[in-house]
Amino acid sequence: MGQGPLHGRARVRGEGAAHRQLLTLLGHDHALISVGPEPQPWAARMGVTEPELDVRDLGNRWGSYRPPQAGAGAKGLMSLGWPLFQLPMHLIDYVIAHELAHVKVSGHREDFWRLLRTALPEYEERRADLDELGRRLWMGDVR
Fold first, then answer.
1. Is the residue at 140 inside a domain?
2. What is the DSSP string of the chain?
3. Nearest alpha carbon to residue 97 among 70, 76, 68, 126
4. Closest CA to 9 of 31, 41, 42
5. Do residues 83 and 138 make contact, with C-beta atoms less than 8 angstroms apart?
6. Average pLDDT over the chain, rounded to an integer
7. What pLDDT, on the 0 to 100 scale, is given for residue 95?
8. CATH number, domain at 56?
9. pLDDT value of residue 56
10. Assuming Cys at both sites, which of 3, 5, 6, 95 could form a disulfide with 35, CB separation 3.0 to 4.6 Å?
11. Dist CA 46 CA 39 (whole Å)
12. Rg (CA), the chain
């Protein structure tokens, strides 16, 4: 995957044949994938705690964020859909920044977009690029 916006590892969820197929699509033969060696700047720019990260089949969504559950520690969970890794890095960055904004603001009200703009001033352009390119990518089910 090369140089990426996240530091650390992401857990790929699944089991059996579907899990092997997903890992093949991602180009990996193990359950943990390295997303990139560069320090992840988006959480710091928004003043949020980095959530745990996993990669999974999210249907037609690029990413999702789940707040911390009671008794599950202080971190939430950011899930990235496996088709995201077909995209150019600047669009992966956009999805990651978008999901990290949900750590602080749920929904897509004006305060959400204002927070995202503080970290990624060009988010509107990237959002439009994602919409355009995303229509042409395979988002097929790997189950």
1. no
2. --S-S--EEEEEP--HHHHHHHHHHHT-SSSEEEEESS---HHHHHT-PPPEEEEE--TT-SEEEEPPPTTS-S--EEEEEGGGGGS-HHHHHHHHHHHHHHHH--SS-HHHHHHHHHH-TTHHHHHHHHHHHHTTS------
3. 126
4. 31
5. yes
6. 76
7. 94
8. 3.30.2010.10
9. 87
10. 6
11. 15
12. 15
Neighbour tally for 98: CB within 10 Å = 23
Cα within 13 Å of Cα(39), Cβ side = 4
CA atoms within 13 A on the CB side of 53: 23
The total number of residues written for the chain in this structure: 143
Q: How many other C-beta atoms can be found within 10 angstroms of the C-beta atom of residue 10? A: 22
In a domain? residue 141 = no
Tokens of 106: 């749920």
Asked, for residue 143, whether it belongs to a domain, the answer is no
% of the chain exceeding 90 in pLDDT? 36
Residue 69 belongs to what domain range? 8-134
pLDDT digits (tens, 9 = 90+) for 41-69: 888 888 988 888 888 888 889 999 999 88
